[in-house]
Design goal:
The protein is an all-alpha fold and 112 residues long. It has one domain (2-97). Helix content is 80%, strand content 0%. It is built from three helices and no strands. The longest helix is centred in the middle third of the chain and has 31 residues, at 33-63. The termini are far apart. The mean pLDDT is 89.
């Protein structure tokens, strides 16, 4: 049982870190602000919740189950997902409205 939980924690934490790393590398390749904002949402929407879930599984494994900790986990994950969506939308609109240069291949809709 210990080996299974150790593997689950490792997969969740390393998987989340790979999401964040992939997003960071993709941000370096993005050509304009809108593309960078779009790439960032993957890290905050998937990578961070995976890592937080891995930490929670490790905490349950070492300290035992507690309903309050489960509620904290669920609220944190919901917060990360909601924050990712709202922040990406707000930052994208702000970047477009500020007149930031866009990649010529980008065909934006009327975002503003």
């Amino acid at each position: 049982m210990n080996v299974v939980l150790l593997v689950v924690v490792g997969v969740l934490c390393i998987g989340g870190a790979l999401f964040v790393l992939t997003s960071a590398l993709a941000m370096l390749r993005a050509r304009d602000g809108l593309s960078r904002i779009n790439v960032l949402s993957g890290a905050t929407g998937m990578g961070i919740p995976w890592m937080v879930t891995g930490v929670y599984v490790h905490h349950v494994w070492t300290h035992g189950f507690d309903v309050v900790d489960l509620i904290k986990l669920l609220v944190a994950i919901a917060g990360f997902i909601i924050m990712s969506s709202v922040a990406s939308n707000a930052l994208g609109r702000a970047a477009y409205r500020s007149g930031a240069p866009l990649d010529p291949a980008t065909e934006p809709n009327d975002l503003a």
